[in-house]
Amino acid sequence: MTKRNKLFLVFSLLLCAALSVTALAQSETAPTATPAIPYGPVDNEQQAESIAIAHAGLTAEQVTNIRSYLDRDDGVDVYEVEFYTADAKYEYQILPEDGQVRSWEYDVLRRGSGNTEVLVSDAQAWEIARNDAGVPADAEVTILQEKLEYDDGFRKYELDFTYENARYEYDVDANTGDILSIQYEAIPVPASTNGVDEDRAFSIALEHAGLTEADIRAKRIETDRERHGIEYEIEFRAGGYEYEYTIDAATGEILSFERDRDD
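That's the PepSY domain-containing protein sequence above. Prediction below.
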């Protein structure tokens, strides 16, 4: 074999080795794609588990101690799914009819930094929560609660808000900005053709009380988002009594009623 042929053979072997190493490195570092969320009618616990795991951005190999069962919550059938990863606990409610996520919770197992110094401002905590929830920076949210709390040796922000048709609750470490827990709950909104507005809800309360608007001295109406849907909280005074009503915004049904002597 000539010297030139020997050099060519050595070069070829080195090139093949380099290509093999590159291919091996790529195969080891290529990320595993998160499976698409398999929404659709759910017939058993295993399907509910698959939806919950995919929604969490995980694979079955990353999950331990999974538990699921069919339950009924506030008159709604749901699959309850609970599982753990190395550093967090997840809880889901999956609707059997379409596989949509009704609610979910995320809690880290190691609670907080252990440092009570507040290095994260409330504005920064809100930015962290909004970004994680996918809320656009210019979008309006309804703030239900904002508190700076002391909990087990560290300080955290408790942020509670609604955006579009969902309610979010976040705990954010006030020292590091880490998200300690998340709670999400879908808010069912009644169709406009079937729902009642505030004026109609007030009329329903008056009819039930046997009064007219001319009898009323003062009134207050609030719209509340509860687990099962939207409610109207109505209070008014008339004839020496104070009346309180809770009316379902979807059906106009009176959910609760109180009448007390107006002191």
